[in-house]
Every structure is written in structure tokens, then in C-alpha cells.
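Q: For a teaching session next week I want to show students how multiple molecules come together into a single three-dimensional assembly. I've collected the sequence lines for a complex. Could you give me the predicted C-alpha cells for the whole thing so I can convert them for display?
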Amino acid sequence: MDETLLHQLLNSVARGQTPVADAMARLRHLAVEDIGCAQIDHHRSLRKGFPEVIFGQGKTGEQIVGIMTRMIEQERVVLATRVEAHKADYITSRIEGARYHPDARMVVWSKGEIAVRGKGTILVLCAGTSDIPVAKEAYLTARAMGNPVEQIYDVGVAGIHRLFRYRRQVESASVLIVVAGMEGALPSVVAGMVGRPVIAVPTSVGYGASMGGLTALFAMLNSCSSNVAVVNIDNGFGAGYFAATINQPRQSSL
Amino acid sequence: MDETLLHQLLNSVARGQTPVADAMARLRHLAVEDIGCAQIDHHRSLRKGFPEVIFGQGKTGEQIVGIMTRMIEQERVVLATRVEAHKADYITSRIEGARYHPDARMVVWSKGEIAVRGKGTILVLCAGTSDIPVAKEAYLTARAMGNPVEQIYDVGVAGIHRLFRYRRQVESASVLIVVAGMEGALPSVVAGMVGRPVIAVPTSVGYGASMGGLTALFAMLNSCSSNVAVVNIDNGFGAGYFAATINQPRQSSL
Amino acid sequence: MDETLLHQLLNSVARGQTPVADAMARLRHLAVEDIGCAQIDHHRSLRKGFPEVIFGQGKTGEQIVGIMTRMIEQERVVLATRVEAHKADYITSRIEGARYHPDARMVVWSKGEIAVRGKGTILVLCAGTSDIPVAKEAYLTARAMGNPVEQIYDVGVAGIHRLFRYRRQVESASVLIVVAGMEGALPSVVAGMVGRPVIAVPTSVGYGASMGGLTALFAMLNSCSSNVAVVNIDNGFGAGYFAATINQPRQSSL
Amino acid sequence: MDETLLHQLLNSVARGQTPVADAMARLRHLAVEDIGCAQIDHHRSLRKGFPEVIFGQGKTGEQIVGIMTRMIEQERVVLATRVEAHKADYITSRIEGARYHPDARMVVWSKGEIAVRGKGTILVLCAGTSDIPVAKEAYLTARAMGNPVEQIYDVGVAGIHRLFRYRRQVESASVLIVVAGMEGALPSVVAGMVGRPVIAVPTSVGYGASMGGLTALFAMLNSCSSNVAVVNIDNGFGAGYFAATINQPRQSSL
Amino acid sequence: MDETLLHQLLNSVARGQTPVADAMARLRHLAVEDIGCAQIDHHRSLRKGFPEVIFGQGKTGEQIVGIMTRMIEQERVVLATRVEAHKADYITSRIEGARYHPDARMVVWSKGEIAVRGKGTILVLCAGTSDIPVAKEAYLTARAMGNPVEQIYDVGVAGIHRLFRYRRQVESASVLIVVAGMEGALPSVVAGMVGRPVIAVPTSVGYGASMGGLTALFAMLNSCSSNVAVVNIDNGFGAGYFAATINQPRQSSL
Amino acid sequence: MDETLLHQLLNSVARGQTPVADAMARLRHLAVEDIGCAQIDHHRSLRKGFPEVIFGQGKTGEQIVGIMTRMIEQERVVLATRVEAHKADYITSRIEGARYHPDARMVVWSKGEIAVRGKGTILVLCAGTSDIPVAKEAYLTARAMGNPVEQIYDVGVAGIHRLFRYRRQVESASVLIVVAGMEGALPSVVAGMVGRPVIAVPTSVGYGASMGGLTALFAMLNSCSSNVAVVNIDNGFGAGYFAATINQPRQSSL
Amino acid sequence: MDETLLHQLLNSVARGQTPVADAMARLRHLAVEDIGCAQIDHHRSLRKGFPEVIFGQGKTGEQIVGIMTRMIEQERVVLATRVEAHKADYITSRIEGARYHPDARMVVWSKGEIAVRGKGTILVLCAGTSDIPVAKEAYLTARAMGNPVEQIYDVGVAGIHRLFRYRRQVESASVLIVVAGMEGALPSVVAGMVGRPVIAVPTSVGYGASMGGLTALFAMLNSCSSNVAVVNIDNGFGAGYFAATINQPRQSSL
Amino acid sequence: MDETLLHQLLNSVARGQTPVADAMARLRHLAVEDIGCAQIDHHRSLRKGFPEVIFGQGKTGEQIVGIMTRMIEQERVVLATRVEAHKADYITSRIEGARYHPDARMVVWSKGEIAVRGKGTILVLCAGTSDIPVAKEAYLTARAMGNPVEQIYDVGVAGIHRLFRYRRQVESASVLIVVAGMEGALPSVVAGMVGRPVIAVPTSVGYGASMGGLTALFAMLNSCSSNVAVVNIDNGFGAGYFAATINQPRQSSL
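A: Of course. Below is the structure for the complete assembly, covering every listed component.
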């Protein structure tokens, strides 16, 4: 219940149109409705500027279709992450306009073209070819949330000159997402080149003492550059989402 | 060497004023000079929008005074972090205008009042009273970098209603820094209330299985809210710095 | 051997009816007989108030049927946990009255309706939909042990207002079981709302630095609320069992 | 704001005595006022049945005296944990009636004798002499919260017969707290003897691969007895508090 | 080269029958021949009292048959551990007299009955039914090495009275092997009952924070009983072998 | 209560000298007395062949003197481990005949010369000079328990030839204790040379990734030699004790 | 762009043949071109002395064939590591001259015989038969990079005399690669015998507390021999590559 | 015993001057004497090309002086590492010519100037000023072993252009030692620039999730550059030693 509705209700009580008992019944849970409410989806869009995203892992194709169908009625963009290919076939054959991105394992549905609202550009970089799926997830998420997004892949620190070829592009980005596995060194190097926020995404790529991504994660947390913050291992979606919260104009209420 | 200098050099060669051999000598290290240069501090301010910050841990008071003295000639604000009290006495008695904040263990020097450039407000929250030193470090850093900063302390999740009293303030912040030790739950709750970026700072507060802050760190990385990114344990400075990179207007070249 | 038997034996010795050698032979193992005995199952019910529960993992369907058959003769309720679906088919087709709960992977058999003995209500909450299987295991266990049990699902801290809608229900529970994965923050928030005991159950839900549930486990152990105790990762059964030991009236000898 | 106040307010609006704008102002923050409130301490006692406990670690003697002085005005019992001896001298010389327990490092103040409200007995056991400080902290906490408490020390599993001497006492307890370091085996053995809830407290006693208490912690979480729940390493206070929430009569609103 | 051969060589040099150059050539590598030798298998039996044991994991059935065939010509007993069932079929169909023990996943071949050389009895205990495979591996190994071995299964600490029924058997054993997963408490309890050496074997049985057996391992290393030593997780073979080295009479050169 | 006492009691009942009620009072706790008893020390010596050893860490000099004084009345040998030098001065000045070994940080008291009971020799080896304190603790413990003990120090694998100089001594030992830090490789090498049991003791010597001894511990648990079992990090006492349980003649009831 | 090209460009500007604007366009990215360049592969061979190696894991057979085909046009040797057998069939049937080594899971292609450039010999040793695949990977890599390579397998420390038989070969090697799992002790022993560099490769062979190779890794890092450096777990390729960088003559520009 | 001595002995036997029994006594331990010998230091110099280095940690100043005095008689260079300042004063005042390097905590003594034998140059780089002590230890060790050594400090990846200024120096080095804490990224970047061997040294510099250097260690082991090998945390000495084994000419018998 937003302020308008509350205003109407109180006016209605003042005019004697709504009995006190009825108003009490509605206001009793105002505590809840004032923060969120029973129609969760609507309030979340209002409160956070973007609807809930479906975490596909552990859900059946049927369940995802069910949730998407309900959300499509209310939202302009609906995302499902961590969707395996065989579920995606089921979903895209049932949800018109839903598109599957196999690299990123995401399903994206939107009402027409997604409008671009962000002023600056979000730049997604990744260190190696094995990091691309996570980078793509970040790319698609930020794009679906209305941002201009660019990507540069395979610029790891073992041949750091490859990165420097893109210096202008790096320096002109508004927010940077840097995806890397193994030693996780790329975010530090990129952050040393710019003054804008750098979101580091460790990946579980590697073997031996890569510890399923913990090595890259800890390396990024210990970055000697201060304009670096970190999200969970393989969490491309979170990085894209976080970048969008930075890039979107404040007044757009995101 | 910036573009203007390069232009002058090439013109000079074209006019025969600079011999090819001399130009080669200068251009040989262009690779380096083009990215950074010998006078590191100047370039860093230009490139990143803020000068280097002195990491006080492991440095003597004399060393810190030496570095600050040199930096003061070139910069408008100079920070030193992790400075123990006895070193601070030495520093503030020798650097005029330097002020020590014992809670945050920071020394701040500025040429006059620090101008406020950021448009939005950075809000620093912390869960318990033991988290205050880290929160203060974040506060002072963001403030020194020219941002309006507010702070709300002791609003941990064991009495979550305390947080809700500040809902308006939470919702109107541009960037939020949330500091918590123990179970590290506060950033998730805060991030669920807003759509703006939340920077989570785990602290080493606690005992037993708090693992020196790793428990809070991992909890924050696993936040079920997507608008959360994380910095290293006890890294209030990094959180303040990262928040500033988000909050500052793009065109101010930060 | 209880006190009555000991009394008889000593009287018999005093009267010369039992030779000293015979008495010695019987008393030699009194230590053992006094603590437990040969008919393990009966004694366990007497000693602990509830029969052994079959841990289905690693046992064949045949083995589980064999054990259940023997137990059914002596007990009013028999539980088997961690039973995969294909084994469950085998079991329910052979044990009349056995019912399989696929969510919780439990088989429950009871002699007629399970009587409700507990006075208070055990409330099971969980943070996300992926935590439901563990929550169900807790629910069914507490129910099978004769307690009134209620459940509230999907009230994680990323939208904490959802939880507050159930405040009355939360506040009136006698014991609370709170199941959560990822950052494991829900038990702290719930425990901050009530004065009754809260049993926290970490789940292995999540990825990256969720460490198979260790992150949630450590977070819960570090809860800033004092009325929280923790059971093992994914151990819904243990939580339900422990809650029942709290909720049952003392005199019922549970 | 409780229901009575809400009723008055709405009636006042209905009667035209309170303008809609004023009512809106009051209701806007209802969410917060309905859950908690400004006078935190009072509400905590009401909500949780026991006032906040002062965590002494990292606080100066002056700070602890300050907090205790304020609390004493409102509460019947005030506890401070983890208080080193030199601070305790300062505190007890300033707070009349405050008593220091050096073993448990606790300061306890109460308005007269602490009344015994719990019906059953809480029994605290510990495995070795080095575990006694943690056991004492549990003992004093449970006692201060109004429970009859008994204690049995030095009954570790390396001489398990020592435990069996106390079988009657063990079996008649309402709640059991079992404190152990090293291999952490005692809670499993005790829990196997009774049907009542057992709260296991790992201690950091040991060396080598005792890992600062993690070995005992993990052992207790993996207990093969189901009536065991665990609190953090060395958290005797938490165990005593949790035991009290179990033992206190429901209606006493604890 | 043993002492006899060395004596012959030196005599031969002394008599002028072997030139110094030839003797030098032979003696140059004496270092090696003196410690071991080219015919490894023979020397190992002589040196260690038991031939090498084939570690089946990662070897094909063909490879195991090949190695066994060569060893059978020289040894009286040949063991292969960690042999999966399908390989065992292949092996037993090709090696006459080889017998597969599916529980322990071992293949045992012996020339006639294995003679019993050990004077005392090795007793193998295990805590739960899931620990039986590891216990069986210990049993078969110790038996194959010529020891009288007895076994007691399912005497975990959750019902410690079950163990006490076997007190005489426990007290009369010469060496004890105690196998346990989960909290790994049984070895401490058993070791507290006897003065003889107890070999603890942690198993990977359990879930959640059992950490693949590390919890039991660390618990056993921290045993508060001093007559406990530990072998690797699931290493029943090592425990049986180590027990045999203790139990065999010194003069038999094992 | 041992068998003789039980026999007397029953005879006394049979003769009417002891009333049934009195006998019951004494026998009521027979369960306990049959396994251990109230006078712990006496029974432990009977049951385990060696009295309790005082763990000095965390005890004051006064406490140690108190315990030793009581034990000296009943035992022939009394040991206290982990005793710092300043406590040792206090102890040796008060307990006549107590001798402090500063290397091993042990206090040893014995009634006259300690008799040698063991038939074979226990050999203690250590890898580096920093491992000597732990090796000495093992040496003194085994010696105090009546065994012939020899020692060879500084024979680490970085110069493995040093070890081979002592081959005869190594091969003729009955039990071997091998102490090593850093990579913990020595026990594997030694165990490869002999067929007798080798007890490996990891030490916390090293830096960096030595992990406080965990590296050596894990290396020893993974020894490719099968006649190796392991005790806790720095647990020289445990190794000496365990070796003694192996070496002592069975009939001596150790 | 190398120095020659830069010289031509500047001369061209000096002669007025290249306008300043054009020269600026080319020089603007000199930073990048001076370090590396657009045709990455060529530059890498020049810069590092050996072309990139294809990491086969996670790539399809088609992708590997595509990359190899392009590289074959420019290079004399092309390697692909971590190639499963079914992909290898596809590759070798399409790339003429490509040969698959199933043990090492490597595909090697070379233009004619690989020339031997290294002066010294690289010796690869491994501890057990399960370590052979990793050892082979090291062998083939070093061989493909133009080095004489020898190998000695199955010389683990449990029978250290086996190693000493090869002492001359060990002592005459220029660089040694030592591969070992389990306790990882072999590199220390080998390094103690020679003064040349020893590269230690931990393998994930083992079970229980071998921790997937971490035990061997940490043991090797803690080697008490100083001429040891370590590569990642199972990284035979890296060891072979690193050995080649040591062994190749400096002037060959490797 | 070297070959000359063996030759003399055999000749003496051949001439009848040495009885067979005496020769046997001497040759019995030839195995040992042939590999190393009683005068350890001499043989080590012969075998490994450099004498033992004194590990100062845990040794008293007196002990170090004692060892140095003996070594000085036989060696040309003697090193002691990890020597605290107060011990160094004692040592340098007693050993003439011994010089203390406080940064590196090393004492170096040499007979006259240390001759330079290595052909190439060893280059030591470090990332931050806090890494300098470890870098110095590497520098001094390599220098003391007769190598030309250069050093470049404070070229971490947060301002990677600083490194590129030294490109020529980096590219012309024969062996590179790269010291870094925090995220440990520098070795990967440096190794990407050259084809020569890079020895990575992690340092324990940092806080929070730097895990005492483990983060840097794991990052370096996962380097995406193949010409990197790693030594233990803070092990500057080992890196310098290892570099020297690479750089020294083979024939110099190092």
C-alpha cells in the first residue's frame, strides 16, 4: 500500500464512508504493507527498481514457466538464471518472446526492446576464455536492467599488453566488471588504471590449488587497488545487478 | 607524456628541430610514460581522482611524516590509515593541520575545509558497538574524498526494529556501507530495503567460530540480496573509497 | 538389573539360598546390566522416550524393510530418514501403513493417528524455497513425536517484511526451528523477536563461498542473539527431534 | 503503538478531531513503532523476558560501569561477561552489590536474591578441569536467569565410569549443558543416557590439531545422539541463556 | 649384498684373486645394495616381514592380475585393497585361490591356510554399521598377516552401555583397532578402559560438518586418552597392518 | 572395588555380619566402582598400568605441587608435562626428588631408580634440532614408564645419508618414535627401513605454509609406508606413552 | 612495432613523407604495440621463446582442431594438454602428424623431429605408479621444448634404496622434476642429494587426509632442502615448461 | 669416504697391510660414508656446492656464534638467516668480519670479497614496500652465493606502469625473483613479459582474508603464466638459493 492508497483510506474514514472497523482491518498489517506487502512482486519493483529474478538451479522447467507466466503479466523484463539447456527448450517453447542464452545459461523475456536508461557504460572484462560464461551472465543482466554494456574478453595478466590495447575503452567506462579465475589478478590491474568502481567476480576456473574459486576470491579481496569490491564466486548475475545499481540515474528510483 | 607533449615532439621532428635519435630516446619509454610516469603522485591524482593513501601499519612515525610532507606540497587532502596512537602524537606535532581520529586510527590533513562534491549521501551503518572503529574509518575516508556522509550505529539484526526506525534515512541514501561482524547478517537486511548499492564490510569482531571475520565475510558474499558487494575484513577504508567512486559525479574525473 | 532385583539377590545371599560364588557371577556384570541391556530397542524407548530412527542413507530397501518390520512390533511410531524415492516405493509396498514424504525423503509409519502430547506449538520457518526439504524433515519429525507443528516458508531476510507479517504466530510459538542456507541470517532475526528457544538449521543451499553450508553454519554459531543453538548442516531431523525434547512435558518421560 | 492506540486514533479521525494529515504523520512510522520502539531496554525485557547482557570484551571498566548504572535503574538482574580481573576491581568498587566471579570472568548484580522461577533443574557437566571457566559462565548465567542449577566437573570420556557415578543426577535433570574441549565426545555420551535436551559447548582447550576448538565443535555437530544442539566455542553464556529459555515456564513470558 | 658376500669379496682381494679395480666397481654401489637391492620384492619381505600390498584403486583388473601372478611365485600371502566388484570378478576367475571380500573390497590369496603367529588377540571395534567396510578391511589385513583377530560392531557412544557388555573381551585384547565416523568419540572411551595400544581409524561416514572424515580424524588426534594413535581416514588396511606390527613376536622378524 | 573386596563383602553378608541395607548402599554404585572408582588414581594404575600424568599447561605451580604431593603417596613414578621453567623452580624446591628437564619442559619424580621392564628398545629419532624438545618429551615419558630408550637427533631427509649411518640401531629397535616438522617426511623413510611399528609425531616447527604443524601431520597420515601411526602435533608425551604400551610385556598388566 | 619500424616512421616524418597526424595515430597505441601486438602468437614466440599451449580442458575437439590448425601455420611445435581420449581421436584424425599420448592426455604436433637445444639433461622422477600420468606430462612438455629428458619412476620414500640405485643419473642431471602424491616427501630427499634445481610437483593421488593434493603441496613448500620450488597440484605441464626455461641456453632467447 | 680413500683401503688390503676384519669394519658403513659422511659440512659443500645455512630462529646468539666459528674454518661464506637485532649485536661483536643486514635479518660472513661466478643476472622485484625485507633476504642470499643481483622495489600491479618503466632490465635478467603479498599478482604479470624462469615468493603482508600469505601463495600457484614456480611464504632465502642453483654455471659443481 503506497501513500496514495493510505490517503484515500483515511479520507474515506474522515468522510464516514469506511467504518473504523474496516479501516482497522486494513491498517493492522500496515507495518508489513508499508515496507513490502502481500503482492510481493509489485512492491519489490517499486522498492528496489527491478523485479525478482528467478534462480533456476533446482527448479523444474514447469516451475520456471509457472513463475514467469505470472511475472510477465506485471513486469517489463523477466530473467531466469542458471537454467540448463534442456529446461530452456521447454521454457522457450512455452513462453513467447523468451530467449535462451546458452553461454550464460540465462532466459530473458522482455516486453519489446529493453530501453536504455543508464547514462554511463558498463564494461565487462574477463581474463580467459573459460571465464566467458560468467562474464556473459553479468553482461546480460546489466543489459536487461537497461544499461549500455560493452565487453572485452581474454585479456588476462599473462599477456598484460592485450589489456592495454583497450585502454581508452577501459578509461571511459562508468562501471567495470572484471571476471577472472586462477590467480584472480586482473581486477587489481584494471582498477589501477581507472578511478571508477571495479566489481571483481572470481570464477571457479582452474585446478589444483585454485580451490574452486577461493584463491581468486581471496586474491580479489586483498587487491592493492582500493576501488575494488567483490561478489561471490561465479556470481556474474550479482555483478551485473550491482553494476546496474551504480550506473542507473538516482532519480529513476532504481 | 600526454597528447600535447607528443604533438609538440612530432612537430619538432617534422621541423627538423629534434633529431630522430633524440626523439627515439624519448619515445622508447613512451609505453610507460603514456600510462603513468616518474612523478607518480601527480599522475595518480589525474588518473584516479584521488592521491595515494598512506598505509600506516608497519611504518614508523618518521616515515609517515616524511611521506606526508612531500604529498602536502602537491595534494589538497592526505590520509594515513592504521596509525597507532603513539605514532599519531609524533605526526600531529610535526604536520600542521594534521588531525588524528583515534577511533578510526586515521590521520587526516587537508588544505582548508574539504569541499563537498558528491551529490548523493553515503550512509554508514554498523551492527554493534565493536564495529564502530571500522565504520569510522569508512566514514572519514568517504568524507575526506568530498562526500556528504551520515552514520547510524548499533542497529544489528538481534533487534531489527532498531534499524526500521531509520527507514527514511536508509531509503534516501545514494550509497550504503554496512559494517558487521559475528554472523554478518545486516547487509542482507539493509539491501533488501533499498535499490541502491550496498557495500558490505565484515569485521573481525567475535570469538570462537567467527574465524577472525571469515564467517561474516562468507555470509556477506552469500547474501540473498543482489545489490551487495563486499570488501576485505576490517577494510573500512576500502569501503569508504569504493563508495566515493560510486557517489562522485562522473565528470569530476574521479 | 534394577534395585528390586538387587534387593532380592542380596536377601537370597543373606538367607544362604544363593551361594556367594553365584552372586558374584551375577554382580560382576552389574555395571553393564545396570546401564543398558540386551534388548536394546525397548530400553531406548524407556530411556529416551522415543525409539531409534532408521538412517536410510547407505541402507538398501530390503534392509530398511527388515528393520521396520521388527520395530513395528514394539513401537507406536517408526521413522526412516534420507530414503531415496526408488527405495521408498519398495518400502511402502511392503510395510502396510508406511507413508513416504518425497520432499523430506522420510518414511513414517504409525499405529493409528499420532497422538498430540506437546502443550506448546513448534514453529518451523525457512528462508528460501530451496530450504523446504530440510524444513519438512524437521516438521515431520516433530509431528511424529507428538507435537503440534506449524510452518512458514520463504521468509528470508532479503525481504524481511515478509517475516513480520507472521509476527503473532512467531511470538506465540513454544519452540522455533529456523532453516536457512546462503548467509544464514534468518535465525538471528527471528531470535531477536522472541524469548523462546530457536534451533537454527544451516542448509547446503548456495554456491561459491557457501562452502556446502559451512558459511550458514558459522553465521548461526555467531548469532548476536543468545537464544539460538545450532544443529548440523541439513539436519532437519535433528532439529525436529531436539525441538520435541524441549516441547514435551517433562513428566511424559520423553 | 498497540491496538488500543490505533483504535483511538482512527476514532479521532472518524470524529474529525484529528486531521488526516496528522494521522498520516503518525501512521507513517507505524511499521517501526509496532515492532519495537525508542526505549529499547524496556521493550527487550518485555519481548525476550531478560534484559540485554553486557559483553565486556573490548569495553573499558568506565564504559561497563556507565552501562550498568543505567540498567540497574530498570532491571532486577544485570550481567557483564568476559570481564578481566583488573576491570572487575574497578567495577565492583563503584557498583554496590556487584559481585565478580573470577573463574567465569563475570560480574553479576541483582536486586536482592535472584528468585528461582524454573521448575526443572539445569545440570552443567564438563569434561576436564580446563573446561571449568566456560562451565562456570554457563552456571552463573542460568542461575542469574532464575533457574535451579547443579554442576558436575571433570567427568571426561577417558574415564567414562566417573560419569556413571552421577547417573541419577544426570537422568533427573530438565536440561543439560555439556562442556568439553579436545575431542568433544562427552555430549554424545551424556545425550545417549537421557531423553532431555543437551546443549553442547565446545571449548578451545587443547593444542595441535584441536584447532582452537573447531575439532570439538565439529565433533559435537556430528553427534550420533539426536538430542544435542550446539553453541559457539567457549560460549558458556549462550549455553546458560539457551538452557534458561527451555527451562522457564512458558507463561512467565521469558 | 649381505655380509657373507662382502666377506668373500674382501678375502678374494686379500688373496689377489680379485683385482682392486674390480672390487672397487662392485663396492661403488654398495650403498644401494647394502640397503635394498635389485630384487625388490624379496628384500621387502626380508626387511619388513610382509610383502608389498597391491593398492587396487586406479589399477585395471589386468594390471592387478599381472602383479599378483608375479608375487604368488615368491610369497605366501598376497593382498589387493580397494578393488571394485567388477575387477574382482576378473581377478578371481584368473587367479586360483584368490578370494574376494566385497564388504572390505579386498582380494586375498594365500598358499594354504594362513598360519597364526601372533600371541595376543587383535580386537576390531566399530561405532556404527556404516563403519563396517573399513573395520572389515582392518580385520582381513590383520588376519592375513597371521594374527588372531576378533570383531565387535555397532557399539557407538550414543548407547555406551552396548560397549560395556563386551568389557572382558575389550580388556583381554592385545591390540585394539577402533573404527568410527561422525564425532569419532569411540576410541577415547575404549582407550580409557584399557592399558593396551588403541589404533583409531576415522571414517568418512556422516554428512554436513563431518568434512569427509576430518572431524573424526581431528577428534581422535585430540583424544584425552594417551594410549591412542591414529591412521588416515578410511585406512582400515593401515590399521590392520600397524596392529600386526605390534602383535607379532619380535623374533619372527616382522 | 576389586574382586577381593567384593568377595569379602558378600561373605560378610552371607555370615550376617553386614546387613543387607549396608551392602546395598555399597553395591549401589558398583557399576561405577567395578569400572573405576572414587579413588581414581589407584584404579587407574590398576586398569591402565600407569598413573595419570599431570598436564601442567594452565595450572599454577601451587596446584601442581598439590596434586604431586597426593600422588607421591600412592605411586612410584609421577610426571608433569608442559611445565614452564618458573613453575618448575617452585615445584622442585618443594617436592623432594622431583627433577626438571627444561628441554622437554617435564618434571619427573620417582621412588628410587625407575626399573626397566620393557624387553625391546624404544628408539626416538628427530629430523631437526628444533624438534628436540618434543623428542625429549617422548624420551622421558617412555623412560619413566620403564623402557630402555635410545635417541638419534638431527637426521632429517635433506641429508638422508645421516640417517643411514644409524641403520643397525634403527633396525634393532622394538618400537620407533619419529619426530619431524616442516614436510614431515622422516617417518615414511624410517618406516620403509623396518618392519616394526613407527609412531610419527608432527611438530609445529616451520613457518609460512607449515600451518602450525598441520602440514607435517597430514603428510604423516598419508605416509606411503603402512607401519606408521600418528599422534597429535607436538605430542611427544603421547608418543612416548603409546610406545610404552607397545613395548611393555603383556603380563605386566600395563 | 619493433625499433626498426619506429626508426623508419620517424625518418619518414623527418623527411615529410608521413604527416604528423598519421604518425600520431600510429604512435598513440605504441604503448601496446611496443609490449605486444595484434598478432599475439608471433609476438609470444618472440617474447617467451615458445608458443602458447592449448589448455584442452573445457574445449571441444572442434575448437582444439581450429586453434591447432591456425597455430600450425606459424609454429614448429604445438601442444594441447588435458585432452580426453575421445577428443584426441577426433583431433588426430584431422591434424596430420598430431600424436596423442594417452597417459599424459597430451596431443603433440611438430614440424619434423623436435630439435634438441638444451645442453643439460632434465630428469623426471616420480614416487608411485599413480603419479606417472603427471610425470609423463612433464616429460613430454620438456621434450617438445627441445630438451634431452630422462625418467625414473616408482622410487618413493617407503623404499628409499630404490632411489639410491639411480644416484649417478640423479647427480648428473641439469634440472630435476620430482612428482609425488600422498606425503610428498620425495623432492626433499632428492634435493638433499644434489645441488641443481629441483621442481616439485604435488599430485592429487591418495585418499582421506591427502586433501586432493594439498598435503603433498604443503609438504613440498616446507621442504627442508633449499633447492626446491613448487608448481600447482597435478601441473606436470608447468613443471616441464619451467624446467625448460632453466635448461635452455640463454642466448637461444627462450 | 671419497674414492681416493677407498682406493687406498683396497690397496692396503691387497698388500696385506690391512687385515680383512679391519677393512670390513670400515666398509660396513660405506653405504653411509659413500653418500655423505661424518664431517657433514665438508661433504655438503662438495655435494651441493654451498655450505649449510644457519637458521637463526629459535637459536641463541651463543649457539649461532658457536656454529659460525666452526664453519668459518672450513668455508668461504657463512650465512645465518632470521636473526633478530639483539642477537646480531652479540654475533657481530664476536665474529670478525660478520656483517648484519637488519632489513633482511641476515648475518653474512665471507673470506674477503665474494667472487662473482654466475654469468647471468638475477633480478629481484617486489610489489610493495612491506615486501622489502623478504626481497632483501633473497638478494643477499643470491649475492652471497656468487651471483650478480639487481633489485627493483615497489612495482605492484595497482600501478602496473611503474613496472613497465623497467622493461629492459626485466627482459635482460637471467632469473627473476618476484616477491608479493596481498593478492600476489605480480609474478604472473612479470612472467608474461619474459621467457626466463620466475621464482614467486608470497609474503604474509596484508590483513583480513590475506590469511597470513596463503592467498598470495595460492594465487601464485595458479598463475596463468607457465614459467613460474613458487617457494614457501616469506621464504626469501629459499628463493635466492633456488635462483642461484639456476644461474650458476653447471661445471662449477654447484
